[in-house]
TrEMBL record:
InterPro entries attached to this UniProt entry: FN3_dom, FN3_sf, Ig-like_fold
Domain Fibronectin type-III: 1-96
Keywords: Membrane, Transmembrane, Transmembrane helix
Source domain of life: Eukaryota
Gene name of the encoded protein: Fndc9_1
Transmembrane segments: 110-136
Protein name: FNDC9 protein
Length: 223
């Protein structure tokens, strides 16, 4: 069939074959497999690792993703037929190209860098969310504490004012009782002074408070 293999590298090879009239309006099958010496002599299609279909308008195909320093067998048939020995060729791949190895290393490093960057961004976002959540919770607790303190202060002030008023009323009540006990007529005198109309009806004071109670004329003078 006149199959040739050209432009062999560590990972690729170009397979070239002459056009076949019997494959008009159909396709070519390009089959390849490593370690060709382990294959059976029948060259069955099931023994090949890869198979590619190529339109009949083409007479060449680039085999890719090969392993460097490996022996391969490649066969070209018409319409997925089982190949024969004259439809196959054996070739050896070369060492990996330094430029390809460098590109592979660069791609690997770029992939690692992108993965690390994404992980760092995720970790930073989680930490930022945690910090903001903690700050909001502390602020809310601080505000609740201030409100509770204000309510306690208000309650203490109200209680203190109530106690103070109660004590003041108690003192005034005790003072009035003391005055009544010491001067029984003093209350009537205070009533007369505060209410001048009470002077119209003279009040007869007791003997003890006679000198202190004003007469009717004195009451009119007060009026």
């Amino acid at each position: 069939m006149g199959i040739t293999v050209q432009n062999i590298t560590g990972t690729t090879a170009m397979v070239i074959w002459p056009k076949m009239a019997s494959c008009a309006d159909s396709f070519y099958s390009v089959m390849y497999h490593p370690n060709w010496n382990s294959m059976l002599s029948s060259y069955s299609r099931k023994s090949f690792q890869k198979e590619e279909r190529v339109p009949t308008s083409r007479s060449s195909f680039i085999v890719e993703n090969l392993t460097p320093l490996t022996t391969y067998i490649v066969c070209v048939t018409c319409q997925s037929a089982n190949p024969s020995s004259d439809q196959c060729r054996v070739f050896n791949t070369l060492e990996q190209d330094p430029a390809s190895a460098s590109n592979t290393k660069k791609e690997l490093a770029l992939g690692i860098w992108l993965t690390s960057s994404v992980l760092l961004l995720i970790i930073a976002a989680i930490l930022l969310y945690g910090c903001l959540h903690l700050l909001c919770r502390r602020r809310r607790e601080r505000l609740q504490g201030r409100n509770g303190t204000s309510e306690q202060d208000h309650g203490k002030a109200w209680t203190k004012s109530t106690v103070h008023n109660s004590e003041e009323l108690g003192r005034q009540s005790q003072l009035m009782q003391d005055i009544e006990e010491k001067h029984p007529g003093g209350i009537q005198l205070a009533t007369i002074i505060e209410n001048p109309s009470a002077c119209k009806d003279p009040v007869m004071p007791t003997s003890k408070s006679w000198e202190r109670v004003p007469t009717i004329g004195q009451c009119s003078a007060v009026n």
